Amino acid sequence: MTRVLVAGDHFVTPSLVVDALRRLTGLDIVTHTGPWPHTPFGPVNEVDEASDIEDELIDLLSGVDVVITQMAPLTERVLAAAPALKLIVVTRGGPVNVNLAAAEARGIEVRSTPGRNAVAAAEHTVALMLAALRMIPATHASVLAGQWRSDLYALDAVGSELGGTTAGLVGYGAIGRRVARILRAFDATVLVHDPYADPATLDGADAVPLDELLSRSQVLSLHARLTAETRGMIGAKELAQLPPGAVLVNSARGGLLDYPAVAEALASGRLRAAAFDVFDVEPLPADSPLRTAPGTVLTPHLAGATVQTARRAAEQAADALATWLAGTAAQPVRPVAALEPGGR
Question: What is the value of pTM for the model shown?
Answer without folding.
Answer: 0.90
